[in-house]
């Protein structure tokens, strides 16, 4: 299953803070029933390709609808056909060996 | 109109070169009738949000179908509601002042 | 304090897996005494700007020295002057409200 | 020679426009004598790894010094050991076949 990382940056708001936009993005993922994890720099989401592209599109659109004049959305999709992938296993592969 | 930057990296192929994957990506954009520009690091595409997400999804899927075991696709969408945007104008705003 | 997200992709290796390259990257951050967190898509690191650029450069260089013919390194730096930032607080701001 | 793509987003300014920040970034690259190309979504720069990391650091720092409370800088470095690379050749490999 592909894994997506998404980060959304509203530009031109009065404040440098955009945690509200990130919370709204997580709400969109929650509403679409997708599993996600938030870290300091982005949100990681699991789903098939159609689900991921749909949630990314809705996250981007929601931020514009919520009054942001300009929104820059960064999306990275990691997709593997030779092996199953999920968020926990990917991180555990690294953390497991380093602890 | 939003502008998208997309780059696609096939991982695990025999060669470090992936210009073939980039050509296939441009072909997908061409087939969908979208305007695009190629630079050394990515491809910039113009379209509405639905068109951009559709072409990004098809570019990603095509690369997997063409035999790449793992594909990492980076997508950035810049979308502005207070002003029209297009590829030429955005670059010209910068280049015009610096020449 | 700025926060950095870094992901490193070796291209042209025999296998689609690159968890070894990510472990080596974490080792570089550990050797430089910097705090980091690994998630499924990237590694988040804390430090001042010089420390972050130095560790990013060393991570990139190490991957080339370890036999990868081509390496693509993605770096994002989030830097705020009006408020202190750290990895835990940034994630907690979001997770706290959504649980 | 590695190639870098850099984009800089000031967050929290009064206006959604940040072409001024991009011009300042290009000025930094010019002052350091590096070859660069501007496209609608980013600036592509040529140089060795130390030159690229130095110019990226200075671009980021300059934007903070010019009064932006928060700056998010995205850097991608593509580095190949089996073959020489430069901006023109990379783009021509793709464009040449598609025209």
Write the layout of secondary structure elements.
The structure is a homotetramer of 99-residue chains.
Chain A: E1 3-11, H1 19-31, E2 36-38, E3 43-46, H2 49-65, E4 70-80, H3 87-98
Antiparallel strand pairs in A: 1-3, 1-4, 2-3
Helix pairs in contact in A: 1-2
Pfam families (chains A, B, C, D): Thiamine_BP (PF01910)
Protein name (chains A, B, C, D): Thiamine-binding protein domain-containing protein
Family (chains A, B, C, D): Belongs to the UPF0045 family.
Keywords summarizing the entry:
99 residues, homotetramer, globular, Alpha-Beta Plaits, Thiamine_BP (chains A, B, C, D), 42% helix
How is this structure best described in words?
Chains A, B, C, D: It comes from Marinithermofilum abyssi. Chains A, B, C, D: Residues 4-93 form the Thiamine-binding protein domain. Chains A, B, C, D: InterPro entries: MTH1187/YkoF-like, Thiamine_BP, UPF0045_domain. Chains A, B, C, D: This is Thiamine-binding protein domain-containing protein. The structure is a homotetramer of 99-residue chains. Chain A has 99 residues and is an alpha+beta fold. The first copy, chain A, has one domain (3-98): Alpha-Beta Plaits, CATH 3.30.70. The first copy, chain A, has three helices and four strands. The first copy, chain A, has helices spanning 19-31, 49-65, 87-98; strands at residues 3-11, 36-38, 43-46, 70-80. Chain A has a four-stranded antiparallel sheet with strand order 2-3-1-4, covered by helices on one side. The longest helix of chain A is centred in the middle third of the chain and has 17 residues, at 49-65. The radius of gyration of chain A is 15 Å and the shape is globular. The two termini of chain A are 27 Å apart. At the A-C interface, strand 1, helix 1, strand 4 and helix 3 of A face strand 1, helix 1, strand 4 and helix 3 of C.
């Amino acid at each position: 299953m592909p894994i997506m990382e998404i980060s959304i940056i509203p530009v031109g708001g009065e404040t440098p803070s955009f945690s509200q936009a990130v919370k709204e993005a997580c709400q969109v993922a929650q509403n679409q029933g997708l599993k996600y994890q938030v870290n300091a720099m982005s949100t990681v989401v699991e789903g098939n390709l159609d689900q991921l592209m749909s949630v990314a599109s809705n996250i981007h659109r929601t931020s514009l609808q919520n009054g942001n004049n300009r929104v820059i959305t960064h999306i990275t999709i990691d997709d593997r056909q030779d092996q199953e992938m999920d968020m926990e296993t990917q991180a555990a592969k690294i953390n497991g060996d380093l602890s």
